[in-house]
Amino acid sequence: MATTEKVITATPEYWGEACKHLMKKDRVMKRLIPQFGEASLQSRGDAFVTLARSIVGQQVSVKAAQTVWDRFAKLPRKITPANVLKLKVDDMRAAGLSARKVEYIVDLALHFDNGALHVKKWSEMTDDAIIEELVAIRGIGRWTAEMFLMFHLMRPNVLPLDDVGLINGISHNYFSGEAVSRSEAREVAAAWAPYCSVATWYIWRSLDPLPVSY
Fold first, then answer.
1. What Rg value do the Cα atoms of the chain yield, rounded?
2. Which of 47, 90, 123, 182 ranks highest by number of CB atoms within 10 Å?
3. pLDDT digits (tens, 9 = 90+) for 122-147
């Protein structure tokens, strides 16, 4: 039986410097950051598991996604690309995965298993180059790739403009609740660079105090 992976708290080395920068450059950050103490990004630590979970969680509630994931995680001895490729489609469907999500997870496993992803070189690659690799996988779009950059690779300057929470948070904190365009959001975020990931995390916190894990 597979063991459930633990959520680990990982504070990036740049976090403290980022907070100082943001509080100096941005009036909203100066107000928000002190409200949340020493909380920071959380990561699950395994690239394949992180992306597989993101596929399982698409278009379903958090609770439903966790239920399906728990069933799926019991199928292989350990969740690795090679082990997932050995699973029977019927068993994955019985765990609650749709036919399309089975296809997506198999495609994800193939990309990891056949070397299509340059995992060991990710630390040297740009954000855009990694996103380009990830969106070539079926079922993974730009938003999922950006969340992966933030939460798994801990990249400091990701601005996920397709994220509803970020846009809503910018609207709430900077525009008194009025609708915000992508260009307006980008203008606000100009003051956040090179720590857009950190600012985004605090914008999310302003809407939901519970720390985000991915």
1. 18
2. 47
3. 999 999 999 999 999 999 999 999 99
